[in-house]
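Please, structure for the following, as tokens.
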Amino acid sequence: MRMETYIRKSLGMKAHWVTEVVETEEGWVARVDRLGNRRLRCGKCRGEVKMTRGRRPERRWRDLSIRDKAFWIVYRPFRVFCPRCGLRVEGVPWAKRWERVTHALAQAMALLARKLSFKEVAEYFELDWKVIAAVVKRVVEEGLKLRKVKALHILGIDEVSRKKGHRYLTLVYDLERGRLL
């Protein structure tokens, strides 16, 4: 499989294609362009749009490193006219709105930030710690939206004497599912 095809499939590109991949002194750079007249998506509501109104200046997104070298995606996004949102910048499939890191790099940063400090993660990925903090905050918010918490119907509370005197340990648990809260 060619490197261009691997990049296109791993980033979920359907309306875009990789025109070239170049190795520079700062790392790998993949230039991306629109594929034919495929429909693009609105950057705000992610709905399909038909009309474009020119292009924005070149933007760069950081992706996971390849062979210990930074990997950048370079693309000039289109300005699109969405019937619901109006004139917007197109939404790219490899990154969230306003972010300059790809989904894969954001997930890797969030997983590593569970064990290490933001400063250590920033040094590892050679990014600013503020970028790490913003990405981790967004990933946590998305995870909390997906979490399904059931209402408690039967709640158990127990106090156990821990040491001599009046020292108690209070346990709160869900009797339906049989687990501590």
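The longest strand covers residues 16-24. The radius of gyration is 23 Å.
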